[in-house]
Amino acid sequence: MPFAIKNPACDGGMNDRIRRLRQQSVETPATLTIERALIETAFYKENYGKYPVPVLRAKNFYEICAKKAIYIGDDELIVGERGPRPKAVPTFPELTCHSVEDLRVLDTRDLQAYHISQEDIDTYAREVIPYWEGKTQRERIFGHVSKEWEDAYHAGVFTEFMEQRAAGHTAMDGKMYHTGLLDLKERIRARIAALDYINDPEATDKQQELEAMSISCDAAILLAERHAALAEEMAAATLDPVRRAELEKIADVCRWVPAHAPRDLWEAIQMYWFVHLGTVTELNGWDSMNPGHIDQHLYPFYQKGLEDGTLTRDKAKELLSCLWIKFNNQPAPPKVGITARESGTYNDFTNINIGGVDREGRSGVNELSYMMLEIQEELHELQPGLSIHIAENTPDEFLEAGIKVIRLGHGYPSVFNPDTYVQELVRQGKTLEDAREGGCSGCIEVGAFGKEAYLLTGYLNTPKILEITLNNGVDPETGKKLGLETGDPRAFKTYEELYAAWRQQMIYFVNLKLSVNNYIERMFSLYAPATFLSLWIDDCIEKGRDYYSGGARYNTTYIQCTGLGTITDCLSVLKKHVFEDKRFTMDQLLDAVARNFEGEEKLRQWIRNHTPFFGNDDPYADEIAVRVYDDLVKAIEGRPNTRGGKTCLNMLSTTCHNYFGQVCGASVNGRFAHFAISDGTSPAHGADTHGPTAVVRSYFHLGGHHIQFNIVDTETLLDAQKNPDDYRDLLVRVAGYSDYFNDMTSQLQDEIIARTENDEL
User: Angle CA(156)–CA(151)–CA(646) in degrees, nearest 5?
Assistant: First the structure.
């Protein structure tokens, strides 16, 4: 249901235009548009097999840019939508084709529906679904995987991002503010002319990729020119001289960018937005595409405008606010199958990085950094996400300004530590300058902006692997033998035997996941190159290679490990109470877990109150957590991918810790069956009993990567469940993003409430 979000405390800084645009954005319901799917299907029917795949994909992008509906709203200054109207979300049938049942589920589900007419469902069933049957990336993947992989996948041992969408995450650097697409076309022409067809066996492949990149330049220029033409038509038809002048300016801007490098702040913001639209229109089914350190990139244009008198602070803030609203107009394309029914957010995971450091290591904070904090506070939207980056040389005033926004309780901004993640990126092989220019692209993952293809492949359920280990390779939830026979845990004499069994099991599942990861990477390289995105990532043009084929300067693959707090606490229980103090036998604990602690509440409470749990500054538990983490690193870090890069570990959960909990029975730390496991690197629910300082300590000084806060109490959340109409604007932190509390499933609401209290679970 559409609703008006009212936040009087944050309303004062908006002018009338931004107030109207914001109201339209938050009140407009998300819809599914079949426009892109129809254009693409018709193009593929006529052209598949006629061109090399990169050229086919580029021409497909050109066709979409030439034929998609163009929208310019009445108050807009920054223009362009991925669909024919705000909040209209396209589908990507080349990746995964929605069924009729999927579309009906999305249209009617209680929370966060994507509305679609019956007429469009019928057209989709007639025109789109029959053509793509057997041709989607998802079908290629599931047609290849082994039974062992598929059984583990369906049991929730791991997930796979790229079976539903393109990989992510992607962030830009500042090159687009100094280089237009016509400049890139000239670089491409020179690179093609320099190809050595005699001595370079890849020369023909490079030529095809480079020609495809050039076509993609033409496509984006055409899209901008179509917006310019529409703006001119609207200007000629309006009687309002003020709006006529604005529309004429919009036309001038769209005639100039992205063909040329921007000359002022308005053009720079529109330049970014056309690049953003191009990448998410070309391929990305659910990718966090974001502008990188946009405060640093835009500041020279802002400074120049103030100095020459062509810009005021208020106008700059208005233009940036228009961009913020554009982000909010872009819900994430929905998934298929069971995840279409259960998916828990519209969020497309754009993360605006502000502050931090520049390429020389100096503080990156400037006046726009503060302005963007103001905008985030005033607009109070679901998107974009915002993160402040606090280094040793960051001014205290900026940190204080960020804290003032955090304490409002919206879940934004999160806080990142460049002093740590720059070292992390350098350790992975980036130059110091490229690492400094990096940051966070979506939730918490970091990379070298504009220079790296870092692909997140899915989550690994570490407590589930322990559950399988404690059942000698069998998943008690499905009854299937999923893992290795590492021995009956009742026969283990020492904790080291148990831990070695878990480690062996974990390595087996990591290897199983990696084997399919590499296959999927090749499928995207062969069938779904991103020829427009490749334009903006160093060194794709120089190499003549696509973003998905090793063209980027750095090529990283991530596996996201989930449940560190839960598995640490489980191992602590077993080590302390079974093998050291011998208070319980392994048989007693496994029997209690199998019965979900029914009739064993005294045992459960004893465990909950007499075990060293992670998150309490207790070396006993902390040493277990470090050992688990180190062994995950050893199993994952440095494993080769197909793009000439390496696989790395990431401790990211988003909302998957809820799903992973659903597929796990009760665990020996006293967690009931099917309740969420711990998220990220956080303690398990109710385990941190010594207050926040015991969890955090001097977190950034000790090398902490990032931190995020929910400034909301349990009473408020419980009341919001009972009286949702009174809390329509309640944003809470979920994981690496925030979401409206009312738009969450009851299970996710309960899990977030459980984080705010220490009651027994």
Answer: 70
